[in-house]
Amino acid sequence: MLERLWYGPSWLSVPLLPFSLLYGTAFLVRRWAYRRGLRKTHHFPVPVIVVGNITAGGTGKTPLVIWLAEHLKKLGYRPGIVSRGYGGKASRWPQQVRPDSDPVVVGDEAVLLAGRARCPMCVAPDRVAAVKALLEHTDCNIVISDDGLQHLAMGRDLEILVVDGSRGLGNGRLLPAGPLRESDSRLEQVDLVVSNGPWLEWVPRMSVTAARVRPLAGGDRVHDLSEAAGQKVHAVAGIGNPQRFFDLLAGHGLEVVPHPFSDHHVFHPRDLEFEPDLPVVMTEKDAVKCRRFAGRNHWFVEIDVTPDENFVHRLNRKLRSLKNGQKAA
Question: Which of 31, 64, 186, 234 has the fewest CB within 10 Å, making it most exposed?
Answer without folding.
Answer: 31
